[in-house]
């Protein structure tokens, strides 16, 4: 037992077990939340109509027991909120960065190469490279009339996106 009753020994063990880099990931459903959590990330629910707030992300950042924290917004509409939470955390003395993932599959790719014991710059570089290699797509129904890079669109037509860019517009209108 140390002169202080063993406190230094306990602190040394706790510090040694603490990862260098932790991750907070936004997840749009129970399946993604489970996948990110199983990979070791602290998760925050975030989906269309109920995006993660700065406060929710800040709470998750505070909960991560690591020297540095990386935030994966996994949605273009959550990136600015993640950056605001990171600024607030840095004002509290925490080391936080945002890897601006725009889709859950980019976040999953980043986590697949994440090394919690690596220096933050190395972890961030590898995760950014993995996320950047991902091509993702989606199909959504247009909510209003407008022009797109793929042509004119009318409300109700379907839009195909690849990596955030409109690549096709359906010929007819779908049911809403």
Explain this structure to me?
The protein has about 180 residues and is an alpha/beta fold. Helices cover about 35% and strands about 25% of the residues. It has helices at about 5-15, 30-40, 55-65, 80-90, 105-110, 120-130; strands at about 20-25, 40-45, 70, 95-100, 135-140, 145-150, 150-155, 155-160, 165-175. The strands form three sheets. The chain has a four-stranded parallel beta sheet with strand order 2-1-3-4. It has a three-stranded antiparallel beta sheet with strand order 5-8-9, with no helix packed on it. Strands 6-7 form a two-stranded antiparallel ribbon. Helix 3 packs across helix 4 (about 80-90) and helix 5 crosses helix 6 (about 120-130). The longest helix has 13 residues, at about 80-90. The chain is elongated.
Question: What structural keywords apply?
Answer:
6 helices; three-stranded antiparallel beta sheet; alpha/beta; 176 residues; 9 strands; single chain; four-stranded parallel beta sheet
Low-confidence stretches: none
Relative helix content:
25-40%
Strand order of the largest sheet: 2-1-3-4
What is the succession of H and E elements?
Answer: HEHEHEHEHHEEEEE
Please work out how many helical segments DSSP would assign. 6
**Percent in strands:** 25-35%
Shape: elongated
In short:
By secondary structure, the chain is α/β, with parallel strands linked by helices. It is 37% helix and 26% strand. Helix 5 packs across helix 6.
Question: Topology of this structure?
Answer:
Layout: H1 7-17, E1 21-27, H2 30-38, E2 42-45, H3 54-63, E3 68-72, H4 79-91, E4 95-98, H5 104-112, H6 120-132, E5 137-141, E6 146-148, E7 151-153, E8 157-162, E9 165-173
Parallel strand pairs: 1-2, 1-3, 3-4
Antiparallel strand pairs: 5-8, 6-7, 8-9
Helix pairs in contact: 3-4, 5-6
